[in-house]
Amino acid sequence: MPIIWIGFAVFVALLLFLDLFVLNAKDHVPRTREALGQTGLWMTIGIGFCGFIYLAYSNGWVESDLPAHTAMINYLTGYLVELSLSMDNVFVIAVIFGYFQVPAKYQHRVLFWGILGAVFFRLAMILAGVYLLEQFDWMFYVFGLLLLFSAYKMVGKGEEVHPSENPVIKLVKRIVPVTHDYHGHDFWVRHAGKLHATPLFVALVMVETTDVIFAIDSIPAILGITTDSFLVFSSNILAVLGLRALYFVLSSMIDKFGLLKYSLALILTFVGIKLMLHEVWHPEEWVSLVVIFVTLTGGVILSLLQPTPAEPHPHDPTKIKEPTEVPDI
After folding, report:
1. Residue 293 belongs to what domain range?
2. pLDDT value for 284
3. What does the alpha-carbon distance between residue 302 and residue 259 come to, in Å, rounded to a whole number?
4. What is the domain count for the chain?
5. Phi, psi (5° rounding) for residue 258?
6. What is d(CA 239, CA 225) in angstroms, rounded to the nearest whole number?
7. pLDDT over 60 (residue 196)
8. Distance separating alpha carbons of residues 297 and 291, to the nearest angstrom
9. Is residue 31 part of a domain?
10. What local confidence, expressed as pLDDT, does residue 321 receive?
């Protein structure tokens, strides 16, 4: 494995250590100010990584023919795409936590381990996607159609989350017994000499499978920007690492971003069309960056200008306290 991949893995491990054992060493509900500060920190790291990308590609640390400035623009565009699509993921996670009545102070722990698993799943999916695009030209059309279909679903009625009907959840229940109540922040407990999963573990599995489903949209979207595996992986992972803090910023304001899904659908449509026209349309790298930035910014601004609903969203995670009733899973 090239040294730059090993170095990036160590860098991500250090960031995860910082997040779990320094910034969130104790189970607590991050206040809005704290969540905003951490979101700013993760975004600074993600955007600041552009400087490293420029150095890496200008000094030949990565085996690539891309000019350094092109690599930097592609990374930033991919980062912005993943960050924007993560916003939609935040809303689904809020519904999951609301269904399982996960105490607010344990939600960060679920997100941390869920995203840790996402790192490995996404690496496998990215490498597979790059391989398919390099070996089979028709895969550009498959990914393009996939993104167009995802855009259509996003502006439709939307997909409801039904944890009790999730086949993965049913499989977990068949393999291991599940307790009916929470045991602090533990995912596993021993009861009557037998190992039991807690509802917190079931919520983790649900978040993990949801992330894989979202990655089916987000990874082809970034592959529509570049097929350089290091750029795709680094932009994807650094955007996902900030999802935990972003979740606590956005989850209590879900109803304020009602128009954002249309911006995300337009982004998916743009990238999908770009993939399908890859043989005849080759816009400059900065064009994709500008289109995605303007579309996302416009969606956020228009959403904030909309009147706020009188009643708060029923799945505001900051309102879930202990003790709590756990639904039948």
Report:
1. 3-319
2. 84
3. 7
4. 1
5. -65, -25
6. 15
7. yes
8. 10
9. yes
10. 60
